[in-house]
Amino acid sequence: MTSLYTPLATYRLQFRAEFPFTAATAIVDYLDRLGISHVYASPYLEARAGSAHGYDIVDHNALNPEIGSAEDYDALCEALETHGMGQVVDFVPNHMGIGLADNKWWLDVLEWGVESPYAEHFDIDWNPAKPELRGKVLVPSLGDHYGKVLGEGHLKLAFDAEEGTFSVWYYEHRFPITPGQYPVILNHALKDLAGEAVIDEDDVAELRMIVAGFGDFKKQARSKRHQTIRRSMSKRLKSQLAELSARVPTVKERIEKAVSRFNGHAGDLRSFDPLHRLLEAQNYRLAYWLVAAEEINYRRFFQINDLAGIRIEVAAVFDAVHRLILRLIEEGRVHGLRIDHIDGLFDPRQYLERLQTRAQDARRVHTNGSDQAGDDFYIIVEKILAPHESLREEWPIAGTTGYEFLNRLNGVFVDPNGETPLTLVYQRFVNSRPDFREISYSARKQAMDQELASELRVLANEFNHLTERNWLTRDYTLVGIRQALREVVACFPVYRTYVDRRETAASDRRDIDWAVAHARRRSTRADKSVFDFIHGLITLDFGRGKKRPFNPREVQRLAMKFQQYTGPVMAKGVEDTAFYRYNRLLSLNEVGGEPQHFGTSVSAFHHANQDAARRWPHSMLTTATHDMKRGEDARARLNVLSEVPLEWARSVRRWATLNRRRRTLLNESLAPDSNDEFLLYQTLVGTWPADFVGVDEPDPQALDDFRHRVVEYMLKAVREAKTHSSWIDQNAEYESALTSFVERILDRRRNKPFFDDFRSFADRVAHVGVINSLAQTAIKLTAPGVPDTYQGCEFWDLSLVDPDNRRPVDFAARRDMLAGLEHAFADGGNRPPLLDLLNSWRDSRVKLLVTWRLLHLRRQNPSLFLNGRYEPADTDGPQAQHVVSFLRTERDCRLLVVTPRLVARLVTPPSGWPVGAAWRDTTVIVPTAGDAGAWRDVIADRDVTPEIDNNGQARFAVPGLFENFPIAVLIAPPAG
Fold it and tell me: Is the pTM for the entire model greater than 0.90?
């Protein structure tokens, strides 16, 4: 039995102001016709104004007004319900957007400091090592040094007469003045009003009483009850001040005059002394944004200053953050959750257990206690798994968002025989021997030194405080602990471990042992026993047993804080740095990927799918997400390079020669360097627009658009690599040389020799890429799990990294093309020959056809795909190694999937597809199980009858299966 709470197939939609709820409502019928069961929505709770992604949430309990109104949201939910479709929502529990003037919780923390009821909502260290920051939060929002910004008059005190409040503003950033400091400002107004004939003395007395009331806030509250009373009093006093200002214009004028005294005069530094003293008395310290890397005292999302970590492990914070989303579940509007950045949480397991319980309770209200929805609420987590790592089976979830599946599937289309020649091509082109492991190691260290240094400093300080509590460990120095921690984190083999109060799992101990052992070997410190101390702490060994040397709770807290640090370092060092430095084969440089692992064997792929069918049958399957480095079909193309390494080698050498004079001499070196040039050529091959293939003269406007996209990508790539430029230290000369190079080599008129030579190679790769793309689409839609289609990817996806992959999608074109296919495949329709669709592959109909037919197959056989077993199907014959075949079985239902792989030598453009005789005597062998009749090919919509051999097995001749189309998905006749 299926329900809306068990997705069959999802479709990811990226909501933003340009794609609001109304736009999604308009395509619900199209998604239903495509075969989608659930919309998979990007975050749509209230985010920072102008947000392009929705992950910078400022209020978890309100819809994003830029995406639409409550009525617009209701209409979307009603449309989904009308079509029998559900909704999976991307939820962000790790952090919130701060800064500016839109996060009420954060503004309250700035105003009240540790007294704020939200002070414990954010992960703030109120007692940092730096004395000047104790009891304060560092706010690195300034565009230059504090003194310069202050002295130039960019910080301005302002009075909000309607609210009766004071704030310092820095452009759009608001910094509230703590109520205890209001008298410092208002006393100037009182002095000006003394003896003023135009104002009633009673009004002056009222202002004096207001000032005296605010003066009571200078001392810190003694208890929570006292804090509540003070906040209520402050609210009343602010209202009185606002009312008095509105009623007596003279009071407002004198207050504004008092405010002007604080704002000083640009060029006169002493005139800003009053404002500086006022700011020094606040619960925050304003700072240059670059200071954050070394001194910030709140946990961030990676290195992004305006995304502050929240303490979702605190029950009150959990309740406050999940109030709306649980109500939407209770109302039957939300049927599943995707949890963003699970590794950022202090205690992922505790969070997921609490969320699962509360979501089930909410769902039970909606279903009136019915158990038809299934046991667990559908929850998936964004999680990157190392090749040796398994998802925690104790977590009450359906699985992950599918990065591990993406990389396994992608590897199937990488030829292992191409590893050595491709490595040599790369090494010779860049004139060095890049080692990804060493690049990754050094990039992680760089991330800790430049972007995440403050977090490491806080962690080392806390470890150091612990050593001082035991005479056996007090000789470990702060510097030594910091250096050792840096080395251990740089050597970590996984994004994080999950040690908690319950246990240290064997897998966690294995990874910690590995990291510490490698760190010890790499370290140059004379006293390496500090690594024993770190090992004992992060495994919790120091917090267990009768003779434990430290307080168990403190050991546990520090071990879990350590775990929150390793993930951001891995992400910044590997995904966002090393992946842009190591360019041997870009299709392997994907989120969750391991570029040093060259491909996936078919047997390993089958084994992983069998394991998934047993353990995680409803995990998400993806081949494209908003986080990808490049589109799914661009990767499929780039994989072809592993099959033609010698041809690729000759081509890139020739291109480098043709384009040499278009590089720029900078500091006695040519720019771009050879590594960036190698990256560029692969980027062009992978993303060469389908409309350009087979065309001598691409449309000039389309070529201009493509050139611009490539320039923007290359600039981002070199900044991420941090070799010649970076986001925080942009090298204008190098970036200008890079931009010029891209523009000049893609000038069809002035660079015809390169352009024509490149086009010839790109055309050939594109044709093979088509087969790879269709095969990976078919496998994704039939393998164990819930397949997701990223918005627009039913057409070719040749996009680049964000923001390129968030470009608008032409849903009208997709709707019209689907209507054409529906009409053609209806009873009596005039169906186009599949080979014709292949030959006209540029229009995307062939990919849409495969997607549509297989999504409807899932809808017709839900139990097969939700609960069915996965079994490899044997292959035999001369081309057996070029076939991926497997069975999905559930009771009497059997499905056979057969796709090609590594077919470069079988494809000869423009129309030499791997069909028919190209497969010679290759066969797929399946036990008959009594279903010896004709099987139905779902895509071609035709019958295929296998030959039954002497062993009672059905043998499918691949030349027949691929007679006119190189993908076959066959459903067996009923047994008996």
Answer: yes
